[in-house]
Specification:
Elements lengths: L1 H28 L6 H6 L8 H9 L3 H7 L3 H22 L9 H21 L2
Length: 125
């Protein structure tokens, strides 16, 4: 079990380091990665604007963050829940499964995610 905890901490440290490096690059250049879906279709995906929103949050610009993607706080909360639940399951059982363990929550989030995708393109937000 101790090995599993170390593995989880290593993965989280690698993710945090990558995010910090990307944030630094974005801060220095003022540019993020373009959304491939948006480039190909002209439509916004459910996550369009998340990089800019997270950057705004990291620099204390909360209102501006919501302007980039109003669904981002819910997406971020779900991602954290997913990461914690998956890590806890891996530490406990040794089996990796990227799920919250609550199928109803997964379905509700998926419906909200798809609904946001449709609404933001109809309303142009």
């Amino acid at each position: 079990m101790k090995k599993r905890i170390i593995r989880v901490l290593f993965v989280y440290a690698a993710i945090a380091s990558s995010a910090a490096a990307y944030a630094l690059i974005m801060e220095l250049t003022g540019r993020g990665l373009p959304c491939i879906f948006h480039k190909l279709t002209g439509l916004k995906c459910p996550g369009c604007g998340n990089t800019h929103a997270l950057h705004c949050l990291a620099t204390g610009r909360f209102r501006e963050a919501l302007g980039h993607n109003a669904m981002m706080p819910l997406e971020a909360a779900f991602a954290v829940w997913l990461a914690v639940a998956s890590a806890a399951r891996y530490i406990r059982t040794g089996k990796y499964s990227l799920t919250t363990g609550c199928e109803a929550a997964n379905v509700v989030f998926l419906l909200l995610f798809v609904g946001w995708w449709v609404v933001r393109n109809i309303l142009g937000i």
